[in-house]
Amino acid sequence: MHDFRYLGRKLYCEDVAVDALARRFGTPLYIYSQHTLTDHFQKLDRAMSPVDHLVCYSVKSNSNLSILRTLANLGSGFDIVSGGELQRVLAAGGDPRRCIFAGVGKTESEIEFALRRNVYSFNAESEAELQRINRVAARLKQIAPVAVRVNPNVAAQTHAKITTGTYENKFGIAFEQIEGVYARAARLKHLRLRGLQMHIGSQLTSVAPFEQAVRKVLPLVRQLAKTHELEFLSIGGGLGIVYQPALASGRPEWWKTAAATNILTPAGYAARLLPLLQPLGLKILLEPGRFISGNAGILVTRVEYVKRTGPKTFVIVDAAMNDLIRPAFYDAYHEIVPVMRRRGGHIKSDVVGPICESGDYFCKDRPLPRVGEGDYLALLSAGAYGFVMASNYNTRPLAAELLVSGRRVAVARERQPAEEIWSGEKVVAWLR
Ligand code: LLP
Fold first, then answer.
1. For residue 368, is it left (φ>0), alpha (ψ between -120 and 50) or beta?
2. Helices (H), 198-334
3. Which residue, by CA, sits nearest to atom 16 of ligand 1?
4. Is the whole-model pTM more than 0.70?
């Protein structure tokens, strides 16, 4: 459940009317519900309570400091993938000792920074990285806690661009090689083999691939835990969310699988996985991003023009692919609703932004309520991989972000002033 709903004709975020926020703070505007974030974190945390566990919120899905602080206050750990994300967690008041550091390309300076801050574990993705971590730890006279990311080679049944657990992907080390890797890593004096990690993909809408992956790695984990005294198993993130309340025809391919399955709930996820995980006696780490932040955010945009040309109706809005790239990049579906409902029927529309790219659209030929200049629309489920993937393409300033809690509203990120976009640039000396 999330906290965006209609009261009468108006869309609300918790106890605040969205149209008033759009007028006061301008558009494009991201709005996040603190209650939804909290609720989603707690649902998963509670479902996993029969085992010793730590939910490590995946910072990449939405890294706004207020979001991170909301989760830190709930006792969340963090899944990070860069030195920058660790700095964000620190800036937000999160605990570095609850951070796990993933990623195939950690630099020496990132490793040194994370070691100095005592992260819980590095999730290493290659033997070269293990050697590098060992070298940096030796220089700092430290013992680095590490886990190796196993690539279990199972199909996640999701979009190809967000599948990570097959041998086609750059992630982790092949299942068959893992024992050898641990044996060699055990000889590196400045490493402590603390766990094993996996993550098979994102936006998984059924438990089956998770279960398949867990079943596949169980014997391996048992073996490694015995030989190397492992403390944890991370089963990664990837829990999918509902983007589409009603099934529409003509949806992109990857949603067909999603539609065929019952949507994944924390209770259903835990019910299938706990019986497998509990007997291990290890601490279980989870790395959910989208499940926590996805439905906790919307992107509000203003209609600038309605253009009818040939057979098409284009609703031209002030948000664009630079603000929310998911439809352009993954053909992703985001529900689009009016911030103020009106009578007047539906019309098949393309909602498009002002950027000079044909890919700059939020939907195509979708029956939407008739709108006109000055109306506001909300793109739902935009809390994960929304603002964080934004760019300045076409010299468009980054949108503002708000956090709502009950009746309270605060700016979680100011709208970027246009001049800031080129503030690091120079007209080089010989051109002057
Ligand atoms: N752990 C690891 C190692 C990951 O690589 C990811 C996401 C997560 C956890 C969190 O996954 P989640 O629970 O959010 O599915 N930009 C894409 C999604 C990319 C996911 C990258 N890795 C999108 O907009 O759908």
1. beta
2. 208-228, 254-260, 266-277, 290-293, 326-330
3. 385
4. yes
CA angle 91, 96, 97 (to 5 degrees): 160
The residues that are catalytic are: 356
Output the tens digit of pLDDT for each of the chain's 432 residues: 679 999 999 999 999 999 999 999 999 999 999 999 999 999 999 999 999 999 999 999 999 999 999 999 999 999 999 999 999 999 999 999 999 999 999 999 999 999 999 999 999 999 999 999 999 999 999 999 999 999 999 887 777 777 777 778 889 999 999 999 999 999 999 999 999 999 999 999 999 999 999 999 999 999 999 999 999 999 999 999 999 864 333 333 433 444 444 578 999 999 999 999 999 999 999 999 999 999 999 999 999 999 999 999 999 999 999 999 999 999 999 999 999 998 889 999 999 999 999 999 999 999 999 999 999 999 999 999 999 999 999 999 999 999 999 999 999 999 999 999 999 999 999 999
- Within 6 A (CB) of ligand 1 lie 58, 61, 79, 102, 162, 164, 199, 202-203, 236-239, 287-291, 326, 330, 384-385
Neighbours of 268 (CB within 10 A): 14
All structural domains of the chain, each given as residue ranges with its CATH number in brackets, are 34-288 (3.20.20.10), 296-421 (2.40.37.10)
